[in-house]
Design goal:
Blueprint: E1 16-31, E2 34-35, E3 38-39, E4 43-52, E5 66-72, H1 81-89, H2 95-100, E6 110-118, E7 121-128, E8 144-146, H3 155-158, H4 163-170, H5 173-178
């Protein structure tokens, strides 16, 4: 999975510590990727997206810039999701705690994101909880939650996603099964899971 460049002439997300609020959490279903040019086993992916409320993080029309990060949906301490959430929480999870943890509860929650430059891209390198005494600003974007779990699947929310995100999700066996289609997993392709809104991108 490769982060994407900013679209058009919109300002880039600044590097360094930035206050962000999680406003979008999207279940992308099982996706194949590549490693050293070879297909990898399909893994369930999620995409998080944060609006930024730091210095120089607004577009000309006043809307906040945003940045996303994609994770494999795994409870393993060796993955990237659990360490990220522990950094945000400021405390380690037990296996039982993390397996029972509902990521949806983090929508609307603020964090300090460390954003770094990686060539032409800006990526989230680290996360931490707000420092004592800090107050989170009001969230600008409406919260967006999409799940491919049968009990939570909402076709109306699916219709609100970007065309590129919808195309990616439609390739997953989970989406196909929910929509009565054969649930085979597609051949591996380049991991371009980005959003197509107006800001710096990698969920």
């Amino acid at each position: 999975m490769k982060p994407q460049k900013s679209a058009g002439n919109f300002p880039q997300v600044p590097t360094g510590p930035q206050l962000g609020i999680l406003y979008s959490l999207i279940d992308m279903g099982s996706q194949e990727g590549t490693y050293q040019g070879k297909p990898t086993k399909p893994k369930r992916k999620i995409a998080m997206r944060f609006e930024l409320h730091g210095e120089d993080t607004k577009m000309d029309d006043g809307r906040p810039l945003s940045i996303g990060k994609t994770f494999t949906l795994s409870s393993s301490s060796k993955g990237s999701l659990r360490p990220f959430m522990e950094g945000w929480r400021g405390k380690a999870f037990t296996d039982e705690e993390f397996e029972a943890f509902d990521l949806r509860n983090m929508l609307g929650k603020a964090a300090i994101l460390t954003i770094v430059e990686d060539g032409d891209y800006r990526v989230i390198n680290n996360v931490s909880r707000l420092m004592a005494g800090m107050t989170a600003p009001a969230q600008h974007n409406p919260s967006l939650y999409f799940s491919l779990d049968p009990a939570e699947y909402d076709a109306q929310v699916f219709g609100m996603l970007s065309d590129k995100m919808k195309e990616t999700i439609q390739q997953s066996p989970e989406w196909k099964e929910l929509n009565g289609l054969p649930a085979e997993v597609p051949a591996a392709k380049t991991d371009e899971y980005g959003f197509d809104d107006l800001s710096d991108i990698p969920f």
